[in-house]
Amino acid sequence: MPNNLLAGKVGIISGALNEESIAWKVALKAHEEGARIVLTNAPLAMRMGEINKLAEQCNAPIIPADATSVEDLEKLFSGAQEQLGGKLDFVLHSIGMSPNIRKGKHYGELNYDWFQKTLDISALSFHKMLAVAEKQDAFNEWASVVALSYIAAQRAFLDYTDMSQAKAVLESIARSYGQRLGKQKKVRVNTVSQSPTKTTAGTGISGFDAFFEYANKMSPLGNAPAEACADYCISLFSDLTRYVTMQNLMHDGGFSTTGISEEIVEAITAVTKQSE
Ligand SMILES: NC(=O)c1ccc[n+]([C@@H]2O[C@H](COP(=O)([O-])OP(=O)(O)OC[C@H]3O[C@@H](n4cnc5c(N)ncnc54)[C@H](O)[C@@H]3O)[C@@H](O)[C@H]2O)c1
Asked: Where is NAD(+) annotated to bind (predicted)?
């Protein structure tokens, strides 16, 4: 049930590709909670056209921007302030893509040009967004910026290949910019480390179904769904979390602090019995 948590606030939401996208759910909830938003995605993704449906539902303008292009981001941030009639209160970075994952390269045979693309799209784009926002003085005081991350930044998940490094960089950028923008303008910058989620980016990873099930069995609360991730982002955009900054916040049903679960023990015991 909406609580008007974002009444009077305005922001930018990136990365809504289709109804499965985490950003799609964040956009709907931000709208429900009283915010006015600008939607953005890469021009290529925009051609698929689905974002228009979301824009209609949220009554939101769309400004295309390739998040690796500073020029596009400058137009995005200035255009958004123009459309929304003032400085921004929140930004969601929900952008990730690895050409190495797309082409099925395993960790030992990564293509380094693609590795750099992965880093540029999935991590440096966050730095570029914040640098542009700072230069344009685009944030209101107490604004909140959230980027979506994954636990492969801290733990080895080999099938996540170069995205693991991208997420580690992303989380580090959140800390550095959190310090800088916090001091300058009381702006919060955090990353939310989300459970495996069945989206276009998620299911593109080899072995996704297995690690989705594994995480689900390991987490006492089960995997966090995309809707719940959206709720968490809304709470971080709201005034209820004003002193939370420079954090990587686990939104994973308890996965990251579980050693082993009964379900995993039972599954392994069943397999061992079968092979006896
Ligand atoms: N799905 C998961 O299991 C999972 C888990 C943890 C974190 N995340 C993160 O959540 C975020 C959103 O992913 P999602 O799962 O909703 O999948 P998604 O595929 O719906 O979203 C990824 C978005 O990135 C956009 N994008 C790619 N290249 C871009 C570029 N150059 N410029 C601008 N946008 C670009 C795509 O168009 C797409 O909208 C990503 O950062 C992802 O790594 C996902």
From this structure: 15, 21-22, 95, 167
